[in-house]
């Protein structure tokens, strides 16, 4: 008797709790959505079978029960018999396609099935009709008998969640099963960023999409492609190898393996270029300028790295007493690497060719009194003709009329410059 009384009390409290839910939380009788009818039908059918435990005789991965009509509409029907058990009545199942490709990420396939026959004399039923329209679809519901409020609440939350999938606004998913659909907005953002050339933002969006659905097919391949496009071949090679190993698609496996091999080849050439440059620096230290020059040219041809190549070229030009060539290289290096060491190098080279005032002003960048690069280039391009040169007023006021810059640079024994 005590056990029966406890069960009755729990049942009464549950019923009171269900009745206390606001009626506006229940499934609306008419709802418009901008998503395709198949996608909305899948989400609604999936929400119903999740809320109605044991209503589907097959495992979750089999698909959501629904009947398809010739006009593209879908009917979702769940029925209850007298003992309280629910089951689905449908002629097939909807299966959502999981893909990192935006063209296929929101596609749902309907497959016929024969095991979903419903009940002969149901005492309650929930029917949801999803009808396609020009700008999306329309959802209507029909309730016969008593349907648990938790089912209707879950259905309403699913419809609100589906409305946000095409918008930037983020909404918490209605259940854990639908949380992977949060990857859709991030995949849309990644595709948009790729179209406008924002590869770093596109890769960041793909990582966010992967955090919501780690098993998303092709996601590692797309991230690896962006790693390679951004020049990060070491990360790209690892990511693409993992994609080739884990993918079930033979075509994707082959493409990922091929791109991983390309990244590895570029990585090997980069390592070889670094080795050639180290050898060139050792030859310069040993005094073998001819071999160092050949190694520098070979490294620049096989694995170009602008900053490393320019520093090696600058050192070689100084050893060959090519002061003007070294100055030009220092200017290029300052554009590729706007650091304090590059400014110091430029100041020293300006002094070597006799540009004393410019050397002082370049040195001021190192000490914190920066001279804008446009003014520096304007002064450098006209340092031989001070009276007729056009300078910014604040720079012209600081330059004396009789300046060492009027004098031509001292003659230096020029060897063949490296080009």
- Give the helices and strands as they follow along the chain: HEHEEEEEEEHHHHHHHHHHHHH
Q: What ranges have pLDDT less than 50 throughout 5 or more consecutive residues? A: 1-25, 384-419
Distance between the termini: 100 Å
The tally of strands reads 8
Task: State the share of residues found in helices, binned by percent.
Answer: 40-55%
β content, as a range? 5-15%
Shape: elongated
The rounded Rg comes to 36 Å
Quick structural overview:
This protein has 3 domains: 23-177, no CATH class; 183-268, Serine Threonine Protein Phosphatase 5, Tetratricopeptide repeat, CATH 1.25.40.10; 320-419, no CATH class. Helix content is 52%, strand content 11%. It contains 15 helices and 8 strands.
Task: Describe the protein's architecture and organization.
This protein is an alpha+beta fold. The chain has three domains: 23-177, no CATH class; 183-268, Serine Threonine Protein Phosphatase 5, Tetratricopeptide repeat (Alpha Horseshoe), CATH 1.25.40; 320-419, no CATH class. The chain contains 15 helices and eight strands. Strands 1, 2, 3, 4, 5, 6, 7 and 8 form an eight-stranded antiparallel β-sheet that branches. A hairpin with a 5-residue loop joins strand 2 (64-68) and strand 3 (74-80). The model is unreliable at 1-25 and 384-419 (pLDDT under 50).
């Amino acid at each position: 008797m005590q056990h029966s009384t406890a069960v009755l009390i729990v049942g009464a409290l549950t019923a009171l709790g269900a009745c206390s839910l606001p009626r506006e939380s229940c499934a609306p009788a008419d709802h418009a959505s901008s998503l395709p009818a198949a996608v909305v039908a899948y989400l609604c059918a999936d929400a119903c079978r999740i809320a109605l435990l044991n209503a589907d005789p097959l495992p979750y991965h089999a698909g959501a029960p629904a009947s398809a009509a010739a006009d593209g509409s879908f009917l979702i029907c769940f029925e209850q018999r007298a003992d309280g058990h629910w089951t689905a009545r449908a002629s097939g199942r909807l299966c959502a396609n999981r893909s990192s490709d935006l063209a296929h990420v929101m596609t749902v396939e309907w497959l016929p099935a024969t095991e979903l026959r419903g009940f002969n004399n149901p005492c309650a039923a929930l029917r949801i009709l999803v009808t396609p329209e020009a700008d999306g679809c329309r959802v209507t519901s029909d309730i016969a008998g008593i349907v648990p409020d938790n089912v209707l609440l879950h259905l309403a939350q699913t419809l609100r969640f589906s409305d946000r999938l095409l918008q930037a606004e983020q909404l918490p998913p209605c259940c854990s099963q639908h949380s992977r659909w949060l990857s859709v907005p991030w995949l849309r953002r990644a595709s948009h960023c790729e179209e406008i050339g924002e590869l770093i933002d596109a890769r960041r969006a793909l990582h966010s999409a992967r955090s919501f659905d780690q098993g998303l097919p092709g996601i590692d391949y797309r991230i690896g492609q962006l790693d390679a496009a951004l020049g990060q071949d070491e990360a790209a090679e690892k990511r693409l190898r993992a994609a080739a190993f884990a993918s079930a698609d033979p075509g994707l496996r082959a493409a990922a393996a091929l791109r991983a091999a390309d990244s590895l080849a570029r990585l090997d050439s980069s390592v070889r270029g670094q080795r050639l440059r180290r050898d060139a620096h050792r030859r310069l230290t040993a005094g073998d300028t001819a071999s160092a020059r050949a190694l520098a040219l070979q490294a620049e041809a096989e694995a170009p790295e602008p900053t490393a190549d320019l520093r090696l070229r600058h050192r070689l030009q100084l050893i060959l007493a090519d002061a003007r060539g070294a100055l030009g290289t220092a200017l290029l290096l300052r554009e590729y690497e706007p650091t304090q060491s590059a400014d110091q190098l430029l100041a020293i080279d300006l002094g070597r060719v006799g540009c004393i005032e410019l050397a002082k002003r370049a040195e001021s960048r190192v000490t914190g009194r920066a001279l804008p690069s446009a003014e520096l280039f304007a002064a450098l391009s006209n340092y031989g003709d001070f009276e007729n040169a056009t300078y910014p007023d604040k720079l012209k006021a600081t330059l004396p009329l009789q300046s060492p810059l009027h004098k031509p640079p001292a003659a230096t024994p020029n060897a063949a410059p490296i080009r």
